[in-house]
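Notebook entry, cofactor series.
This is the third protein in the set we're modelling with a bound small molecule. For this one the ligand is zinc ion. I'm keeping the input format identical across the series so the outputs can be compared line by line later. Sequence and SMILES below, as received.
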Amino acid sequence: MLRNRHDVKPFKMAIRPGDTVVVIAGKDRGKRGQVLRTLPDRGQIVVQGVNLRKKHVKAGQSAAGTAALQGGIVDFEAPLSYSNVMIVCPNCGEPTRVKRVVLEGGRKAIECRKCGQPFEHLRRGEEQ
Ligand SMILES: [Zn+2]
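Returned structure with ligand:
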């Protein structure tokens, strides 16, 4: 189905699934959690334990990616805006802004503005 999305700029989020983020706005402000999913084209992310909603489901229906075998009320994490969280640096443990850097050898990473350590894309490179 066509959607009117001419105002949505494609952009790359520094945040990836598996990162720890801290919520800086909204009712869950101050909570930390792991990123479960990212929705880059909507600029949203899903964070574990943050922005919990309840969904009423019938047996067999899936709710937010979780197949419900029994019907009932299911808690799930609703997406929240990327701009409402800050990434937590794995080196210094502080919520931080990041800078994109290219390392020697051409690998891309993001760098903590506070301690200056590159991380994230470097770490992902090691997984592959
Ligand atoms: Zn840091």
